[in-house]
């Protein structure tokens, strides 16, 4: 269907249709003109024949009508033998009318038609269903008429005319082929190359060039496309360099090689694009305790990454003044609500661990994707949200929840880029799959458990690229 709408197809159809119509009209007009010319030529020939017969009839006149009749029959019969179908001769002599009897066409109707045709401007008349073309010549009271059927004249001429027209058609076809080849080489193929270049640019192959071409217009168009392609390639290179630097900055904001007494930690961090709106952190508090943080900003890409960096700064500032997770969330929210745009919000979960203690404090700002696996019974405790997401209300408040932990228990924190991954059928990965893996992997290392979550997510996506940032933080209590 696309080919039928292409300029190459449409122009070729237009050009060839125009040539075909012009050729058809020319052939029809030329055919009619040629047939008419052949009829006129035949009339002239019949006139010449009549003029040739008249002197012979005049000389035979003294010999009587029988001699003239014999001569007329002989000539008419000979003309028939010379491929003059429908040929007939009539002579008016001394008030007597003689008609050739060689072919049995003599009749009063035939004579009347020949006489009428001799007087008509077109020198034609009808006898029965047949049209006659008549030539004549006169001397004194002697009149000679020579006729042929118009259909016989046309039939005789048609073969020669059609042969000539076939030659014209062949020459026209050759010329049309030449025009088509020239058009394809000079316009259609260059245009297709230009379209192909634009499509490659649209598919991300920036920097590709088209041409050169032999026509000035196409060369100018190619230069403009090439300039655009080069410019886009340079812009994309600059963007990639900037995004690469932004990615390094964001990675620098994440914790690296942090050792916490009594805790083992493994993580998975996968941005949907170059940089992410997910954020996790491990912060040492002034009182010797440690703060675990996981956050998920609305959206992804550059705006979300900027918000995540802002949350990092606010968290570090809050940690200088407070230790309780709920107090830290209130501190962050007061400032986040002031500097963030309307409609921007983030979920965040904070868990405070005091080395040597058997309890864990946490507060969750709309972040519900957290579970704790018991080391002895294998049961899973879900850690629900304790308040609204950040940025919803400036006066929002949160509660700090406290629960006991034992050696070997595991804490798993994920963003919704894990639980809300869809497969090809539109089914979500969901929290149930996460907790199932958590249970099945209680005997393997944290790193292996996180790897298996990653494998399960990739299998669920079915090879599709992720559409949201994905973060997993796994913690095991070792004392």
Question: Which residues sit in consecutive blocks of at least 5 with pLDDT less than 50?
Answer: none
Q: Report Rg.
A: 52 Å
Amount of beta strand: 15-25%
How many individual β-strands? 15
Spatial order of strands in the largest sheet: 2-1-5-4-3
N-to-C order of helices and strands: HHHEEHEEEHHEEEHHEEEEEEHHHE
Beginning-to-end CA distance, first to last residue:
70 Å
CATH level 1 name of the largest domain: Alpha Beta
The CATH superfamily of the largest domain bears the name PPM-type phosphatase domain
- The coarse silhouette is rod-shaped
Helix content: 40-55%
**Mean pLDDT over all positions:** 84
Q: Briefly note the CATH topology name of the largest domain.
A: Phosphatase 2c, domain 1
How is the biggest beta sheet arranged? 5 strands, antiparallel
In total, the number of domains comes to 3
> How large is the count of helical segments?
11
CATH architecture descriptor text of the largest domain: 4-Layer Sandwich
User: Which class of secondary structure composition applies to the elements?
Assistant: alpha+beta
């Amino acid at each position: 269907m696309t080919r039928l709408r292409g300029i190459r197809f449409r122009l070729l159809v237009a050009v060839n249709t125009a040539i075909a119509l012009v050729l058809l009209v020319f052939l029809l007009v030329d055919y009619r003109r040629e047939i008419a010319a052949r009829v006129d030529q035949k009339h002239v020939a019949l006139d010449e024949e009549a003029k040739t017969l008249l002197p012979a009839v005049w000389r035979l006149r003294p010999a009587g009508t029988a001699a003239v009749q014999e001569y007329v029959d002989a000539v008419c019969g000979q003309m028939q033998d010379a491929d003059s179908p429908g040929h007939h001769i009539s002579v008016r002599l001394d008030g007597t009318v003689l008609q050739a009897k060689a072919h049995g066409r003599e009749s009063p109707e035939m004579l009347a038609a020949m006489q009428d045709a001799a007087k008509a401007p077109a020198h034609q008349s009808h006898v029965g269903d047949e049209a006659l073309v008549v030539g004549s010549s006169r001397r004194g009271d002697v009149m000679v008429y020579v006729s042929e059927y118009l259909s016989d004249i046309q039939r005789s001429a048609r073969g020669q005319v059609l042969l000539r027209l076939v030659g014209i058609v062949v020459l026209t076809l050759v010329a049309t082929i030449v025009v088509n080849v020239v058009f394809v080489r000079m316009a259609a193929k260059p245009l297709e190359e230009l379209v192909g270049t634009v499509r490659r640019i649209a598919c991300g192959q920036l920097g590709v060039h088209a041409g050169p071409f032999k026509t000035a217009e196409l060369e100018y168009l190619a230069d403009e496309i090439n300039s655009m392609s080069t410019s886009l390639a340079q812009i994309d290179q600059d963007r990639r360099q900037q995004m690469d630097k932004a990615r390094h900055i964001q990675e620098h904001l994440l914790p690296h090689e942090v050792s916490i007494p009594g805790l083992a930690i493994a993580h998975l961090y996968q941005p949907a694009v170059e940089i992410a709106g997910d954020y996790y952190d491990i912060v040492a508090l002034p009182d010797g305790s440690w703060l675990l943080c996981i956050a998920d900003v609305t959206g992804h890409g550059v705006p979300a990454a900027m918000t995540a960096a802002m949350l990092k700064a606010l968290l570090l500032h809050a940690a200088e003044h407070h230790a309780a997770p709920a107090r830290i969330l209130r501190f962050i929210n007061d400032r986040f609500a002031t500097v963030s745009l309307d409609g921007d919000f983030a979920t965040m979960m904070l868990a405070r661990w005091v080395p040597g203690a058997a309890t864990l404090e946490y507060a969750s700002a709309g972040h519900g994707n957290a579970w704790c696996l018991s080391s002895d019974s294998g049961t899973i405790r879900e850690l629900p949200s304790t308040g609204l997401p950040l940025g919803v209300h400036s006066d929002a408040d949160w509660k700090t929840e406290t629960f006991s932990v034992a050696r070997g228990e595991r804490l798993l924190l994920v963003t919704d880029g894990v639980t809300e991954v869809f497969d090809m059928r539109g089914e979500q990965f969901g929290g149930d799959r996460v907790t199932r893996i958590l249970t099945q992997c209680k005997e393997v290392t944290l790193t292996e458990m996180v790897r298996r979550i990653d494998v399960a997510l990739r299998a669920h996506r079915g090879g599709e690229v992720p559409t949201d940032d994905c973060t997993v933080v796994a913690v095991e209590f070792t004392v």
